[in-house]
Amino acid sequence: MTISKLPVAAGLSAVLALGACTDPATLSGQTDPNQKAKQGALIGGLIGAGAGAIANDSDRGLGALTGAAVGAAAGGLVGNQLDKQAAELRQQLANDGITITNTGDRLVVSVPNDITFDTDSAAVRPGLRSDLNKVAQNLLRYPNSTVQVIGHTDSDGDATYNQGLSVRRANAVGDILQAGGVSFDRVQTIGRGEEQPIASNLTAEGKARNRRVEIVVIPRNA
Question: What is the pTM of this model?
């Protein structure tokens, strides 16, 4: 039996059109404070459309549209939650060196190693513990997520040593989050060493950016 793909394509096009038409930034060139939530809805709609089409063999067009609607709703909820959680963190954290990035499907809280640890140390400085405790309290208010704590270094020194140091630093930050009440099964600690730079290791400024611990908050239904 030959099944027409046109209704499925129409369903996907409808979701794309909805995202474009409801984005004030597209219409006016201005930044939309709810952009991440809308991106989440759009991504969820596209995924839902594909899943709905596959699930509904009798009417793939209807399945795509139904799946798109359900997926968009779920994606929008995730995006709204992340917008709210990010705004609360920015208001609560005292250190301007900590950055919070909402990618649309997760939050990345980046803590520079230079303000968190002494050189060649995995002991968190007392001045940063307060902010990390605030991150823990924020995670308790938003329990429907998993948390990856990822340690990174620059490329100076031995790569094997850097890998071990990144693991120890990720564990140190993860321990503080767990001591603040975040359950053990939500937190995964990972060391990446010098494998994932975000800037050039050829400059002092780039190396400083690469030395970091990232707390990645991933909604469970993302």
Answer: 0.69
Which CATH fold would you assign to the domain 97-221? 60s Ribosomal Protein L30; Chain: A; (3.30.1330)
Backbone angles phi, psi at 42, to 5 degrees: -65, -45
How many residues in total does the chain contain? 222
Q: Each residue of 112-153: pLDDT tens digit?
A: 999 999 999 999 999 999 999 999 999 999 999 999 999 999
Hey, how many other C-beta atoms are within 10 angstroms of the C-beta on 91?
8
Which pair of structure tokens corresponds to residue 207?
């190396």
Pick from 42, 49, 35: nearest CA to 75? 42
Question: Domain residues of the chain, as ranges?
Answer: 36-92, 97-221
Three-state DSSP state, 201: coil
Query: How far is it, in rounded angstroms, from Cα 110 to Cα 191?
Result: 14
Rounded distance, CA 57 to CA 141, Å? 41
Beta bridge mates, 102: 107
* pLDDT tens-digit series, residues 151-173: 999 999 999 999 999 999 999 99
